[in-house]
Amino acid sequence: MKLFNTSYLLALPVLATASQWKLTSGELAVVSGKSTEFKQSFSAEKSIDDLILVPKGSSIDLSIETEGVNSNRAHQTVAILSSKELGLDISYPFSMRVSGKGKLSIPLKSIPELFLSDRVGKLSLELAVGGFGYTEQEDTSEEEDEDVESETEEEEDEESETEGEEAENAKSATPKRTPKQITKNIEPLLIKITDNISIANKLHYPREASPKRFGIKPEIHHIFRPDPRQVNAAFASLLILVGITSTVLFLAGAWIFFVGVDLADLAPAFKASGPAHAAFLLSIGAIEYTFFQYYKGVSIFDTIKSLAIIAPASVYFGSRALREVKARRLAGK
Asked: Transmembrane segments in this chain: where (predicted)?
């Protein structure tokens, strides 16, 4: 569909007269099933003025016969259905034969629903026939080639007198001219068939006000989703601290009551390898402090850097401390 131009209808009589196409016969019929509700002929000089009522389930059938300059079958033959109220039109192509006879059936179901609504009045139907043709024109290409040759020979005349005479003979020679076919547009044939097509059972569309396309629009207030709710930081810290403390106490109690740790062994252990035990315990505390700092917001890169320094020391001093414990156990202490 496209916008309908009112000047198009005003130009129909002029274009129909100036066109090199000719409509020899035309007929419109409204067919519903096997019965024919309406049937009437039309021509370029006379359109159909009677009311054409198209009931539900029917179709608009067109049959035409055209004549042209070089061929009776045009390159394009279409029927244009339009509505002045909507300012829209839609085209349907004919099925044409070489003889110039053509047929077209427009079922009601193939017409857009907007054309069938109660917002439009009567529909108009036009016929458009157009194509290309050829005209005879003298082919002067040989003459142009010989002119180029003569100009070249005239330049060489300064060098040789004999060549100058040949150039004059070539210039005075009569060129051969042959007819040449040139494609040109033939003025289309535009005929108004009728403007009294009425749909029997129209669809109901509410007549709403047209939306405002330009101008100031109302201000848009964006409502963003609220931030996700989080647990109170102080409560979370206290809960983690209680969990860590209870875990440490549980491990310490299990170590003392089930493993059988003797606190009297602390003095000999620190006496034999005191720096190793102290450094190992300090490294474990440093690792815990590093993770605590990460929890408070220190970046992961700083955390990894700190662990890379503390971990080797913890492994070294831890191995020294465990060697001392192993030596005492082997000694039976």
From this structure: 234-260, 272-292
Residue 205 falls within a domain, yes or no? no
Question: Are the C-beta atoms of 108 and 56 separated by less than 8 Å?
Answer: yes
pLDDT digits over 202-232, tens only? 877 666 656 666 778 788 888 888 877 766 7
Q: Report, as an integer, the average pLDDT of 180-195.
A: 74
Determine the straight-line distance between the first and last CA of the chain, rounded to whole angstroms. 103
Q: Are residues 266 and 194 in the same domain?
A: no
**Rounded-to-integer distance, Cα 187 and Cα 202, Å:** 37
Mean pLDDT, the chain, integer: 77
Q: What is the spatial distance between Cα 322 and Cα 272, in angstroms, rounded to a whole number? A: 12
Is position 65 within any domain? Answer: yes
**Cβ–Cβ under 8 Å, residues 290 and 307:** yes
Dihedral sign from CA coordinates of 119, 121, 125, 126: negative
Reduced to 3 states (helix: H, G, I; strand: E, B; else coil), residue 101 is: strand
Backbone angles phi, psi at 214, to 5 degrees: -125, 160
State the chain's maximal CA–CA distance in angstroms. 137
| Mean predicted confidence (pLDDT) in 275-301 | 86
Domain count, the chain: 2
Side chain identity at 116, as an amino acid letter?
L
Q: The domain containing residue 64 runs over which residues?
A: 21-133+187-199
8 Å CB contact between 94 and 129: no
3-state secondary structure of 38: strand
The answer as to whether 178 is a domain residue is no
